[in-house]
Automatic annotation (TrEMBL):
Protein name, per record: CADD family putative folate metabolism protein
Keyword Oxidoreductase listed: yes
Organism expressing this protein natively: Lusitaniella coriacea LEGE 07157
Keyword Oxidoreductase assigned: yes
Record Pfam families: Haem_oxygenas_2
Amino acid sequence: MTEQAFLAQLNAIIEQSHLLKHPFYQMWNEGKLSLTMLQEYAKEYYLQVHHFPTYVSATHAACDDINIRKMLLENLIEEERGNAHHPELWLRFAEGLGVERTEVLERDYHEKTRESVCALKILARSEEPEKGLAALYAYESQIPEVSTTKIAGLQEFYGIDTDEALSFFRVHEVADEVHSQATQAALVQLCQTDEQKQHALESTQKAVDALNLLLDGVYETHCQ
């Protein structure tokens, strides 16, 4: 499989199941979610944000290539450094919607949310680092566009416009553009055999399915 064909298949898998095609995000972009629906989403999605740095660190631990490890380390430091680490930024978003952070931290998460996190942990902890890298790419390649549309919807339909409430999305508009490009380059470098490329493609499909699974749970519970 050529590099070009590999990347084309990788991106086609992501595009086919892109998060912005999910009914929940479509309702968000059209202003059809109630504030309660957004609040429930904010509480539920925190589990994914909380665990995302562990996907990065697990993939880092599985990888032998020093340059790829350095890239992942920089990603991890951005996720968790300082008082404005990314889980904290998500809690500020929830507060901007009128949710107490204790409601988020003490949440009894949906089964599909827990399944989503579990699936991504399994991919990240694989002994084949291309699986973890592909899962990270499946997420990070979508987030800049998702973040832009979320900001627009929050401002236009819900009157949410404070820096505190929008900081998570504004950070990821930029950061994940850089991260996804670096992760894509690492995947190309790492996947030298057809077997490795196939591992990455299969992992990409599992990752996008897991990410959509969380939204399925929120949509089915609070929007139908």
